[in-house]
Amino acid sequence: MQKPKLKFWDIWNMSFGFLGIQFGFALQGSTMSRIFETLGAEKDSIPFLWIAAPLAGLIVQPIIGYLSDNTWHKKLGRRRPFFLLGAILSSIALLWMPYSSEVWMAAGLLLILDASINISMEPFRALVADKLPDSQRSYGFVVQTLIIGVGTWIASNLPKFVNNTLNISNEAAPGVVPASVKVAFAIGALVFITSILVTIFTTKEYSPEEMKAFGEESAEQEEKKGMIATILSTYALMPTVMKKLGVVQFFSWFAFFAMWTLANPALTEHIYNAGKPDIHEFAQLDQSGEPALDAQNLILFKNNQSQAEYKKLDKAYNEASDDVGSKMGIYGLSSMIFALLLTFYTAYYSINRKYVHMGSLILGGLGFLLMFYIPGNPDYLLISFSLIGIAWGSILSMPYAMLSSSVDSNKMGLMMGVFNMFICIPQILAAVGGVVFLHKLIGNESIHAMTIAGIFLILAGLSNFLITNKKAITYQPSIDNA
User: Most exposed: 40, 50, 52, 200, by fewest CB within 10 Å?
Assistant: First the structure.
């Protein structure tokens, strides 16, 4: 018995929760480094402060994948219990994040936020494979990417929108996150929980009996192994196509981690000439060399002129950061348009996933490389992030479509969770010093991190030559898994 094909709105509704997930990720990606800088973190330490995010994914996703494969709730089904749990925890973390008063608090909340987002996100990938026949999976993942693009664009623009349209200030005392960012995160929390609920209430999952009729029942022998044994055996018996896609993923996610962690300091300095001012240059210092505080726990400036100069430079930094976040949103808009075109095309025709992915990644790499050559010209970032968006749209759809057509459907959730190691490991390596070490081989300026991102994304594109599995490259019912 074959799974029935679903209509566009059915696929849209079952993927709509990704809007909220991406609100969380986009606010994190466009604003987290700004929060760290505001709280006093040094630029070179920012990638390490992000390490909680990939560590959470590395640990949480395989576990959630296994649990969601082996869960059936009478009302919520197989994947939806995890959508709901992740949404509740993520919304709480989003509300608290901008109220962090110390760097360690923000880093701890980032761990909670990313772990919570992963609880919701991983089952969404598996749900596409659960609900759709093989012939619609590229279509399904592309629709998912379309929604992700919408979320990225809107969420990245939220701090600027809140400041310019709602007239909520983007200025604050030294070491305090501006009110505009706090409101943006609160909106993100509301969108997260609401969009997840839309998917929960509009999407019916196939029951275990229906999955059995489709020939996709869970194997009892696999269940008896237990969670840890099953996860470890899946790592050991990883399909060849997953390993090859892992090489592509490694270079891709290293590049994007460099962007998320260092784009704000790199672009505010190189493009806007408005880096974060160092409070130590303007404040009175105590015996330990830290800014001195008055009785109200406020920073004591050297004089009124120093205070005015700091406020002027900090205002320029916050405005530049708002604009960097807004420009980063372009990659979400671009990925949305790219996904929309793929959605219409893949609804009727097969595509060569390998070459689509290769070309998209190379274009994104060129977008990163362009950034070095446009100092003082923020408008050219529209071109850079448009090209990066094409790569992003492909990263969020093509690898998963290739993988889902090439692995055991009985363990799709676990496979998607294990595949996540190729997302997390490169980010961990980048966080512990990889991206800073590599960009300093070129120069001390943070903009060189974007150059490294461009080089790695081009290498990711070329790595697609490793993919030779015919069923992974282009789905055709007559072609067996090679």
Answer: 40
